[in-house]
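This entry is listed as follows:

___
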Amino acid sequence: MNKRSELHHVVIVGGGAGGLELATSLGNSVGRKEQARVTLIDASLTHVWKPLLHEVAAGSLDSSSNEVNYRVHAKRHHFEFQLGRMQGLNREEKQVVVEPLFDESGVVVVESRTITYDTLVIAVGSTANDFGTPGAAENCIFLDSLEQARKFHRHLLNSYLKAEYDAEKKQKHSLDIAIIGAGATGVELAAELHLASQELPVYGLSHLKEKDVHISVIEAADRILPALPEHLSSAATRELKQLNINVLAGQRVVNISPSDIEFANGERLAATIKVWAAGIKAPEFLTRLDGLETNRINQLVVRQDLQTTYDRNIFAFGDCASCPQPGKEHPVPPRAQAAHQQAATLVKSIKLRLINKQAIPYVYQDRGSLISFSRYSAVGNLMGNLTGKNLMVEGRIARLFYISLYRMHQIALHGFFRTSLIWLGDKINKALHPRLKLH
């Protein structure tokens, strides 16, 4: 038996923003010093920051140039990577069960296997919650993964191409896009799609005019961005209307057909492309993990130190976990900044576990909210409850702050020097390539 097999084994399931940051930080510290063995499990080979998926969908971001290869990253940062999807859990034997791997023809490449852990961290994120709305699963596109974002982009280009040739033949050619859910993803996607409607005619699709593309954002609550302060909602509504985007608040969707959307009041909205961006839930398999406690949206229930309620050797964080906030009715909100903060807390807690000390509690710090309207503008408030006051920002300054969020994620993964090189490469690529991905 070699030395590494005797080390405390930290297994992290899920390579999203929080999971990959945690694996990177632990690998750079306890992994590099051989104080522990760190393994990351993910169903994909590459990582793309989830808040960027709406840009991939609209074509304003080339995902290929923004992907992080897990194997390469693991080699550079002293942790191991296992490709696969978590299927089950044996808490008594401390084993994670991983699904078989199949090739494109459905042939098994790797059989189902188990990975033994000493400390398990589950960070599998969330998926969209269609609340059982009839027709949603069959007729809407979801943006939960990179593959779904790429699928949407291909569908968008094909829809534009069809509308372009219909326009050339003087046939009916309007393109109606409906986004159900006016949270951050829905609002930002609407702005990116408006940009696409301006850019595509530049590259030859000139018969389909900007005025022929109708984008609607639908929200069941009485205002868009209902989870954010009202002044941000008002500012966002103003920005969307300036972009000629139809804002439909207070409209609950009850049925979705291939051609239109039906509201609770009986009205209908025609839509060629329908995107579901309302609500979240954790993956359903979490409800079957050897008796771990979950809530009504499948999230693992955790204590304030992010340990699961029934097992001190298993942690969960990010969108897949319900973590209490002391003195508050609602748990920590499912936001990227929360996952980033929780990853930093878990680094400290896991290091303490290695010397038989208790994990430390996580306290959510609201650093504010920023909403991007593509290259046009951004709005937001900064600092949040750090100072008890909110600083409202708009326009170019808000846009710079928004961009900096992604750079901070890159710094957490690659360090400042490598992120600087990535930033320089992005600048060069923007000069060499079209502003919109056209394939």
About this structure: The two ends are 51 Å apart (CA to CA). The longest strand covers residues 213-219.
